[in-house]
Amino acid sequence: MPVVVVESPAKAKTINKYLGPGYTVLASYGHVRDLPPKDGSVDTDNEFEMKWEVGTDSRKHVKAIADALKDDNALILATDPDREGEAISWHLEDTLRKRKVIKKDTPVSRVVFNAITKSAVTEAMKNPRQVDAPLVEAYLARRALDYLVGFNLSPVLWRKLPGAKSAGRVQSVCLRLIVEREMEIEAFNAREYWSLKALFATPRGQEYEARLTVLAGKKLDKFDLANATQAELAVQAVTSRALSVKSVEAKPGTRNPSAPFMTSTLQQEASRKFGMGARQCMNAAQRLYEAGYITYMRTDGIDMAPEAVMAARDAIKDRFGEDYLPKSPRMYKNKAKNAQEAHECIRPTEMTRDAGKIKTTDADQRKLYDMIWKRTLACQMAAARLERTTVDIASDDEQVELRATGQVMMFDGFLRVYEEGRDDVSGDDDDDRRLPQITQGEKAAFAKSSLRDQFTKASDQDDDVVEGAGDAMTRSDAAVLAANEAVLALRHFTQPPPRYTEATLVKKMEELGIGRPSTYASVITTIQDREYVRKEQNRLIPEDKGRIVTIFLLNFFRQYVGYEFTANLEEELDEVSAGQANYKDVLGRFWHDFSAAIAETSDLRITEVLDVLDDALAPTLYPPREDGSDPRQCPLCGTGQLHLKTSKTGGFVGCGNYPECRYTRPIGGDAADGGDRVLGEDGGDEISLRSGRFGPYVQRGEATEENKKPKRASLPKGWKAEDMDLEKALTLLSLPREVGEHPEGGMITSNFGRFGPYLHHKAPDEAKGIYANLKDPADVFEVGMNRAVELLAAKRANPGGRGRAAAKALRELGEHPDSGGPVNVMEGRYGPYIKWDKVNATLPKGTEPADVTMEMAVELIAAKASKSGKGRKTAAKKPAAKKTAAKKPAAKKAPAKKAAPKKKAVGD
């Protein structure tokens, strides 16, 4: 029987079902080899020879394949149909040949299929080929480049910027995009402008809204109404004139559907519609592909196979009728720069199978499949037909003109199934309104209704301030500049560019030609794992550490974080994969310049680097002050100069008079934002607010020889540094608070600890006493005796908390694929964790429970089990096929595996 090798056990299970008992289908579990994280893995002096190493976890999988080939002398490599899949096949064949497992008479073939369906798999088996050398060389070039950049640049960061973790060929350019967008936002100066709206009524009493477009006979530009005075004059000009309908123009229009999904657009739409991160989206898509529900999910292509197009048209006709079917199929041009790496679009393998017919309970997979299915059908449906209407309302002297716009849907077409999301949608889209019947020449009378209520509702999501009748009003008070309340002047401010979401970042990277679809998810994940970027409300915000790294690279390695340079390098790699360039020539040109740049920074001292960064960041770090004083002057001591400093946790601004003056503040902050400052005096001691390694804290006095550890108190969760004053600081410094004497003796106290607010009581017969958690930080200052005694009694009765109801799972992932038993995401005291059998594996920092997949959970469980030794008992469960085999004597147990050596940080 031929041995068929794929990447994952899930894919192996599906393919084995299609191929039947005549084949042995095994999984490689991803890449079997990688470059060891040590110097010399890419030999730059020997034509970039690469030294590969089989991973510790991969050895057993390679052995299983080798053992199978002893009985079955034929190898079929059926890994994914892209550059990575080709590389895995090459690695596996090369490894087996070096081990002499593959004999001279062993036939080795490569098959690819774009979808895991019976027809696709059996057809692929009829058309075997050899491993594609140019695709492998493109992989080798990328892997060597990533190694050379990461392995050589990361140590430079470690030496020059304490706290920096790594740099990468694509990762650092992606980070630059986020940092530069943040700097644009910080440098943005809002500009005020006004607009005017009026509510009219037709002779039949139907109302419609219009906006001012012409004033004093001149077309009104965005900033022409620059202040409240000009807005009020505009209102008077409108309300003092008789108005009539100058023209009514209705134009037919059409909307065509979007192209079917490729990897980048799938990630963008999943982010817009569901808030899915790139990695979460790709994990769900991977599962759908392995289950045979969709075609391959890593592709630059948007073309669709002819048979799929016809299947889509048949499904549309059956579900919606012939009216929704265009006369001829829609053809979408492939955008991939290299056709050899382009696959079909991402589409369902069966067009008649909607989301209700797929066998999965995973919510992410269901949502994603539904979106893919709808988008695929929509792309082959008829266009939507609209009628766009424009109504111009003018005064007789043509000094004033207003315009109302709207549209009527004549035929919904593809919109019946699907409408593409938008990244930054303004809430005021006049074109989406439907207008009443309006006749040219009829009188345009102001409506009796008020615009006040409409604007009040809209303003709940709008930061505009409105002024009316000369009085400033808040945004929730719609300003009325006319007695009939039918005319409003609205104050606006221009807005800075929005922070990137994962969707808009992927879109920008795609536009610039940075990275490729298969890399977007891992790159965005990496910069968050490195704590260079954090995600808040789906927006990507650079941390100080990420900002420092970016400015450093821009000043000392500018070429290598250049958008054009990175895009050009991607094009060269595409030429390699197309067989049009030699990968060693590409590596040679890159290394010649890059090694010289590395050498130039080797003699730089940290102080020199900080001086350069300090100057580069000066506009951000030291903005002009309102009083005109020196922005670098320390606000605490008044004599020192502020300078950029670095620490293991990132960068910060500190006073040059340290240690006499300990003023510090974050890079993105200002003195007013809660930087170190004196809050006042109490009993002759100076009470100050300071920034420490673990956040802001208050301190009484200074450290002296007599008092080496002055009283300190960290700010509790929810307390902001900018809100701190002397009274609050003294309240914190007074802790622990004595709640009262316990009925059984001993004082009850409340305080804040490492894990939050708590109560403490030590009875006369106890050695250490008991601690009980408080839920609300305010309870530290407010909890009374009765409740304190109850909480302490409950804690003593149940010290381990095991008498309580069992913790509920945040997510149920299903049965462990190898060993059985439920795998769940649980809520723990110190954060969410994965639970399986007796193994509890904490989620990595920044990972949300919703992002966890079974594959990720199994990896975390295996890593935890190998460290703690808990996995030894459960390991016997893994090989299900060997359950009936006789147990081996205890003496023949394999020795415990050694932990893998800690890898150095190498960028992606």
TrEMBL record:
InterPro entries associated with the record: Topo_IA, Topo_IA_2, Topo_IA_AS, Topo_IA_cen, Topo_IA_cen_sub1, Topo_IA_cen_sub2, Topo_IA_cen_sub3, Topo_IA_core_domain
Map out region (Interaction with DNA) in residue numbers. Answer: 166-171
Protein family membership: Belongs to the type IA topoisomerase family.
Region annotated Disordered sits at 863-908
- Kindly give the HAMAP family that the UniProt entry links to this protein: Topoisom_1_prok
What is the reaction catalyzed?
ATP-independent breakage of single-stranded DNA, followed by passage and rejoining
User: What CDD domains does UniProt report for this protein, alphabetically?
Assistant: TOP1Ac, TOPRIM_TopoIA_TopoI
The name this protein goes by in its record: DNA topoisomerase 1
- Please report the stretch or stretches of sequence annotated as the Toprim domain: 1-112
Mention any one GO cellular component term assigned to this protein in its UniProt record.
Answer: chromosome
Task: Say if the entry is tagged with keyword Magnesium.
Answer: yes
